[in-house]
Structure formats: structure tokens, C-alpha cells
Design goal:
This protein is mainly alpha-helical. It has a domain of 47 residues. It contains two helices and two strands. Strands 1-2 form a two-stranded antiparallel sheet. Helix 1 packs antiparallel against helix 2. The protein is elongated, with a radius of gyration of 15 Å.
């Protein structure tokens, strides 16, 4: 049987950061992020652009924090080992 990773997102093969999620929890976080971003565009963008920018920065910071806590530790990668 294949061993399951405890990480929601693996590290990228090239560069620094995380790739697409490999667990349903990671996909759920991305769906929620996209939904909140779309909702913020509807609520804030028509009349309050600076508020939307702040809202987007906060959402991105929250996504980064979740990836940092639940993803594989990020490091600079140059491809397969």
C-alpha cells in the first residue's frame, strides 16, 4: 500500500514554494480562498478599491500561513534529486 504524506501541498520541483495540493484539505483551502477572493471582488471592488487591496493581501497572507504550516517545508529546488 502506498504511504500517504501528512503534507497538504508538496514543495515545488523547481524554485521555492509549494505545488498543487495532494490532499483534499489543501484543495478545500484553495476553493475557500478563491470563493472569498471572488466575494471580496463583488463586495469591495466597485466602490472601495483600497479596501479590496487590503482584503486581498490579508487573504494571501492567510493562504501563505496555511501553506507554511501544512505544506512540505519550502526550500529552493533545482529539479529531481
Amino acid at each position: 500500500m502506498r504511504e500517504r504524506s501528512a503534507y497538504w501541498s508538496p514543495a515545488k520541483r523547481y524554485g521555492w514554494g509549494w505545488g498543487p495540493p495532494t490532499a483534499w484539505q489543501g484543495w478545500g483551502v484553495l476553493v475557500i480562498f478563491g470563493g472569498l477572493l471572488a466575494a471580496g471582488a463583488v463586495w469591495f471592488l466597485p466602490s472601495r478599491t483600497p479596501t479590496f487591496v487590503l482584503y486581498t493581501l490579508l487573504l494571501c497572507a492567510a493562504l501563505f500561513l496555511v501553506c507554511w504550516l501544512k505544506g512540505e517545508p519550502p526550500a529552493w529546488h533545482w529539479g529531481k534529486k
